[in-house]
Design brief:
Keywords: Signal. GO terms for molecular function: metalloendopeptidase activity. The chain has helices at about 1-15, 20-30, 35, and strands spanning about 50-55, 60, 70, 75, 85, 90-100, 100-110, 115-120, 130-135, 140, 145, 150-155, 160. It has one domain (about 1-170): Glucose Permease (Domain IIA) (Distorted Sandwich). By secondary structure, it is α+β, with helices and mostly antiparallel strands. The N and C termini lie far apart (about 35 Å).
Amino acid sequence: MKIKTIAILSLLTLAVTLTPTAFAAEASNSSQPSNMIETRFSLEAPIHDTYVISSDFGLQINPETKESKGHNGLDYATAKGTAIFAASDGIVLFADSNQGYGETIIIKHNSEFSTLYGHILPGSFLVKPGDTVKKGQKIAEVGSSETGDMLHFSVIKQGTLVDPTDYLPQSTR
């Protein structure tokens, strides 16, 4: 298990630390105003069926222990076996088990963004590392965590876990 934990941390590091593309370098030397070269990165919800966001991104307080803890993504509570879809086009970096999220997929979308899908139903992977995926393509099915049937969904921007709702359509938050 320790080797897989190290491997997933290495992949997350790779997913978030690749250097910007040549376009970004050219853009920084451009005479255009910066707002002319920036593009808005947007995602589609990884779950299309009925769901409830059972845990939001950010600081959360355990109602029993009163301890606060950061939560690095969104938890989509939905039925086990529900389809999980790629939130954007990209390349699969990781599709295997890891200690924190159980069965997990990581997709690199561009030089800035990657997404992580955790608590996947074992045996339901439809992708493997190196595969190219399209936004809306089914990649796996929802599994379970210690708190129930759910998908854990994280967004990583330039090495930092960020709030997925900043990149999802308002109607899916």
